[in-house]
Amino acid sequence: MARWVVTSAWPYVNNVPHLGNLIGSILSADVFARYLRLRGEDVVFVSGSDEHGTPIEIEAIRRGVDPKQLTDQAHEYVSKLIREYRISFDNYTRTESPVHKSFVQEFMMKLYQNGYIFEQDDVLPYCPRDGMFLPDRFVVGTCPYCGFEKAYGDQCDNCGRLLHPTELKNPRCAICGGPVEFRKSRHWFFDLPKLQEKLLRWLQESRLPPNVKNYSMNWVKEGLKPRSVTRDNKWGIPAPFPGAEGKTIYVWFDALLGYVSATKEYGIREKGDEEFWKRYWFDSETRTVYFIGKDNIPFHAIILPAMFMASGDPYTLPWYISSTEYLMYEGEQFSKSRRWGIWMDEALELLPADYWRFALIKMRPETKDTNFTWSEFTRIVNSDMNDDIGNFVHRVLKFIKSRFGNKVPEPGEIKDLDKEYLDYILAAPSRVGSYIESFRLKQALEEVVELARRGNQYLNAKAPWEKIKTDPQDAATTMYVAANAVAELAVLLAPFTPDAAERLWKMLNMEGSVHEPGRWLEASKPLLNPGHTLGEPEPLFRKLPSDFPEKVHELLAEARKKVMEKRPPLLRW
Ligand SMILES: Nc1ncnc2c1ncn2[C@@H]1O[C@H](COP(=O)(O)OP(=O)(O)OP(=O)(O)O)[C@@H](O)[C@H]1O
Ligand SMILES: [Zn+2]
């Protein structure tokens, strides 16, 4: 059995995560981690709040407070939301965690000692009106590669290229909008060109998906440039290099190492074991899986593996990177900094987490940018969740309660139709599982819906409500098969809608929790025996009114007003 480390990109805490962050990273990772645990695998699932860097520093200066004071509250608020969405992190930590800060300093010193960090004057944008160097997202200009006019100093959000601020055409200060000057400042650089060949070979041989692999290989082939790992910011992890006093570590180098430090912190806290993390990260058999949006590809497929290589320690390199395209809202990309989208907290004011989890997985932008629309959301809730799954469950449980004394009937002769559906449901865990294992979460959930759809067809074809009068044995067989399909659904829904799955488990009067390790494997045999007494049936999901898409903007405005009052200052606008 392999060990797994499942990770989700660290959300920047300058805002509440939006539905794009959820599907691009947090939720997709959770479905995968939950699935692995249900298979009894050894999993550590980590992420945390990314809190350093300029946007938060500037916000703190503007408000005249300490940035940590702002992020303490923001991290707590986001952590609570993550729990409310049932994201099953083993450790959701933060970049201000002491374990993380010292880990980053020690790690960066290793790169320095191994000769991968060199010191050099950098020419950086400076705003004479604001009196400061403008790092990363604080200088905006035209991308030299694709012509996008709102590219940032470190990356173009349109074509995804990593940039140096001097490459931008017509660079302007993002704070005041005026032109920038370029001034010299001493910085410490990561010598990526030294790793060029090694990276290329690894990429070539890796099992990364084609979109990640091709993009990264092209980028490496064009020739890697050294990247500066320091910044002139005060808010961040102090750079540990001799002579670098007053500089901090660039947020990306800081946050990427969080995957490792969060595992370390988890081992110390939960197992009292300082060395726990090495059993995962220093074992080439460990499968590390990263869930990210496509703009994060270069950092995970190039920078992070390069850092691991340069450390000289036996880190396991990324086993898989599942990167999504963008979820769009009304034609534009969800964005924290531009405050565009639907936010995790306001969504919960409208409907419980399961609805968002289900609908987002069904809309997961796996192959192309995908528009989140309220009409599609309504269709998914009303048709897939209610008409297909909810209705099937209800029909089966109600009928067994009214006609079989709420006990799973003893089946009679298993005929063709029965066998066909029974075989189909018992093969479902492996069918759904293989889609999850190939990171096709959307298709995996579609298979779960299909199981219920076929269940409804099976009931219609077998008509047990007629047969109970003429051939009660056959009605009993039908309901035995159908009841087992319902139990199967509880297990298959567990990674996707954990609360509904648990409620269904209780309605079936099953022992323990549906989320127990190994449950998925048990489900390849019938889960319900004849004679088993079921619990009380109740509706699994509820429908949205048909005018929901028209009303939703009004509902959302109310919800936003309400959550703004609960949010801590940094997240309020
Ligand atoms: N619309 C989206 N669809 C899918 N994934 C997304 C989307 N927006 C962001 N992500 C992913 O969410 C993760 C966290 O991103 P981050 O906290 O930087 O938020 P952001 O919305 O991208 O911020 P900003 O808009 O300010 O750049 C990243 O992996 C990112 O790729
Ligand atoms: Zn570009």
Automatic annotation (TrEMBL):
Motif ('HIGH' region): 11-21
Localization annotation: Cytoplasm
Catalytic activity: tRNA(Met) + L-methionine + ATP = L-methionyl-tRNA(Met) + AMP + diphosphate
Example GO molecular function: ligase activity
Entries under InterPro entries matching the protein: aa-tRNA-synth_I_CS, Anticodon_Met, Met-tRNA_ligase_1, Met-tRNA_synth, Methionyl/Leucyl_tRNA_Synth, MetRS_core, MetRS_Zn, Rossmann-like_a/b/a_fold
Cofactors, names only: Zn(2+)
Motif segment ('KMSKS' region): 333-337
Cofactor binding mode and count: Binds 1 zinc ion per subunit.
Binding residue positions for Zn(2+): C143, C146, C156, C159
Keyword Zinc: yes
Keywords (A to Z) from UniProt: Aminoacyl-tRNA synthetase, ATP-binding, Cytoplasm, Ligase, Metal-binding, Nucleotide-binding, Protein biosynthesis, Zinc
Keyword Cytoplasm: yes
Role: Is required not only for elongation of protein synthesis but also for the initiation of all mRNA translation through initiator tRNA(fMet) aminoacylation.
UniProt-recorded name of the protein: Methionine--tRNA ligase
Organism of provenance: Pyrodictium abyssi
Highest classification ranks of the organism: Archaea, Thermoproteota, Thermoprotei, Desulfurococcales, Pyrodictiaceae
